């Protein structure tokens, strides 16, 4: 079994490969994006958990994260564990996306975004399925990588859980550098919020669902309502 240092090195080496634009496997540009995320984030994270002997962490929050969970509870003032109204939050996010799309449509402008995601937005109705695929794969793969595997391996190597999540959030922002400085900053903040969600609920699936909803909002809902997607 490889050492934790080797597993960490593999995780970090997968990061730049996940962002490469020369990945050519897939029938559509967005399918290729989903393929990169699936292989270099999702499958790499799953392999890291297996090789570290911690596959159960995917369904049960590791004890190593307890200090970070306590910090998140103190920082937010929300007691741990908390039961979040996931369905309500998802509906609120989608509803906000619809409103933002309608405002953009009335003003005849593209919806405002906290970064340049134009290259990821479907431009035709026939592309919507690919956009949805990217949203789901990114939500699942990136949460496994940035909210679980990477912080866990860092924690097992002796880095405090709090700093492990901070470092992972910074790398999450860097992974979205194609969105520009504003996008990097926004995604790093989103990473911290998703980390807090995971730590306060103890459930990775909740952070994953919110991540998927966030991506669907940005790639599908707002552009579709705003009239950006052609037939």
UniProtKB/TrEMBL annotation:
Keyword Membrane: yes
GO molecular function list: endopeptidase activity
UniProt key word Ubl conjugation: no
UniProt KW keywords: Hydrolase, Membrane, Protease, Transmembrane, Transmembrane helix
Domain of life (superkingdom): Bacteria
Family matches, as InterPro entries: Rce1/LyrA-like_dom
Transmembrane feature ranges: 30-53, 88-107, 128-146, 152-174, 181-199, 205-225
GO biological process, alphabetically ordered: CAAX-box protein maturation; proteolysis
Domain (CAAX prenyl protease 2/Lysostaphin resistance protein A-like): residue spans on this chain: 128-216
Protein name according to UniProt: Membrane protease YdiL (CAAX protease family)
Source organism (scientific name): Sphingomonas aerophila
């Amino acid at each position: 079994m490889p050492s934790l240092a080797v597993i960490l090195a593999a995780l970090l080496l997968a990061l730049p490969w996940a962002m490469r634009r020369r990945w050519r496997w897939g029938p559509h540009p967005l399918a290729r994006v989903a393929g990169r995320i699936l292989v270099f984030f999702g499958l790499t994270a799953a392999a890291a958990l297996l090789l570290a002997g911690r596959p159960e962490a995917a369904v049960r929050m590791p004890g190593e994260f307890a200090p970070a969970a306590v910090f998140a509870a103190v920082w937010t003032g929300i007691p741990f564990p908390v039961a979040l109204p996931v369905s309500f939050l998802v509906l609120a996010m989608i509803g906000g996306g619809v409103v933002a799309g309608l405002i953009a449509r009335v003003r005849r402008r593209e919806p405002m975004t906290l970064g340049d995601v134009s290259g990821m937005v479907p431009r035709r109705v026939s592309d919507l399925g690919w956009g949805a695929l990217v949203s789901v794969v990114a939500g699942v793969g990136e949460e496994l990588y940035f909210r679980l595997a990477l912080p866990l391996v860092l924690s097992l190597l002796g880095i405090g859980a709090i700093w492990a999540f901070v470092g992972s959030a910074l790398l999450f922002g860097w992974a979205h550098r194609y969105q520009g400085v504003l996008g990097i900053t926004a995604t790093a903040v989103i990473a911290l919020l998703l980390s807090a969600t995971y730590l306060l609920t103890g459930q990775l699936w909740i952070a994953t669902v919110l991540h998927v909803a966030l991506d669907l909002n940005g790639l599908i809902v707002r552009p579709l309502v705003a009239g950006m997607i052609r037939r």
